[in-house]
Amino acid sequence: MIDFQAAPLWMIFALSVVLVGGANEAGRYVRRRFQVDGDDNTATLEGSVLGMLGLMIGFSFAISVSNFDARRDALLDEANAIGTTGLRARLLPAPHNREVLDLLREYTKLRVDVAASTRSMAALDKLIDRSNTIHEALWQQAKAVAAKDPGMVPTGLFIQSLNDMIDSHLKRLTAARVRLPGMVLFTLYGIAAVAAGLVGYTTGLTARRAILPTYVVSAVAVAVILLVADLDRPDAGFTRVDQQPMIETAKGLAGYKD
Known about the structure:
Elements: H1 9-33, H2 42-89, H3 96-114, H4 121-148, H5 153-177, H6 182-202, H7 211-231, H8 244-254
Helix pairs in contact: 1-6, 1-7, 2-3, 2-5, 2-6, 2-7, 2-8, 3-4, 3-8, 4-5, 6-7
């Protein structure tokens, strides 16, 4: 089976055009070649398959939009968690407050870089390893402050926000890795090919080919399939998750005076 997730969008577009257009021409050729005519149920079957195609497109689009929203929400939650941790870190005694803020500034930069590295597994693994290292360093700072005075309220607040920040790290990675199942896209392509073939078969014996309506429908199907594939890729394409919340968090941390 084709790995749709690894294929670039231009290849998805080309495959869609070839598949839908080729199926349409194949259906027309079969009708003209074998001179099949008479009253049949082809039009009814065509309408049923087109309805199924519309249902499948809606189902695929809903999944892609849901995944996109989950990635956007995960990014916002993580940015808020980092920002809260940074604010509470300023309440810690010196020198822990400065050390924690320095770690958070580096960590926030890493979280911005993660969005551009999801297609390179080597780069992504390196960023994740460094993020985990910073988690451990921050936790050691929390332990050191708690050991000095376990009754301090700021320390408890900081530990709580740090724990939320670490949890949001995993939630964001999970949201980025959740994609539309390949079988769903494979089925979508199959139904689109059958529908295009039936449209071509139905118009195969008309005296004047219904070129414009046929190819308008085909173009719409191709465009929607491309949009579904685009929404399902957080790292490439025309529709991407806006990184501005994390960028604003990084700017805020950079402006702190400990």
